[in-house]
Amino acid sequence: MARFYQAILNGGTLDGVRLLSAKSVSEMLRIHTPGIVTGFTPGNGWGLGWCVVEKPQGVTRLLSPGTFGHGGAWGTQGWIDPNRGLVFVLMIQRQGFGNSDASDVRDSFTAAAVTAHGGSESAHAKFVEYHGYKQAVELTRGNVRAVLCPEVGGRPLEFSINGKSVLFLDDQEGRGKQAGNRP
Questions:
Q1: Which 3-state string (H, E, C) describes the chain?
Q2: Model pTM above 0.85
Q3: Residue 115 pLDDT > 70, yes or no?
Q4: Which pLDDT score is estimated for 170?
Q5: Would you list the domain boundaries of the chain?
Q6: Average pLDDT of the residues in 88-114
Q7: Which fold has domain 2-98?
């Protein structure tokens, strides 16, 4: 998904190969529903296959106008902020998640990504050293803590509730590797 989103962000090209015409991408991202309340969060319109943020607010408050994307039935979110050149991909597969488009999980994820991109911290997102990684991003919300590592493609290093992590991380595994490399 991230590579497909990168192609759309690039105006229809990926790795120097044109997959869609620039005109097709432009038409896909043009709002075709002006003045109509659309989507599952306020301030959006619909392009062709994409929800487009017109007036950022609520969970989209940190995104730029013109950000586009969509959510999935079981919580997956994918959004592209062309102003910042960022692709947000949140892979969740959770039944009964409710309105994942307006969820606290999406809100915290967006805040963490924008915070990390800007190099600053917020009340729920900060940089920490974790398992030898100097710039891991710690997200907290109540009794939930997640630590993600931009140095290895945003990989989760910890996901814990009440201090008990549900992930296993070998102290030696992954250290020093670049995003996308596999052992």
A1: CHHHHHHHHCCCEECCEECCCHHHHHHHHCCCCCCCCCCCCCCEEECCCCEEECCCCHHHCCCCCCCEEEECCCCCEEEEECCCCEEEEECCCCCCCCCHHHCHHHHHHHHHHHHHHHCCCCCCEEEEEECCEEEEEEEEECCEEEEEEHHHCCEEEEEEECCEECCCCCCCCCCCCCCCCCC
A2: no
A3: yes
A4: 64
A5: 2-98, 121-183
A6: 78
A7: Beta-lactamase (3.40.710)
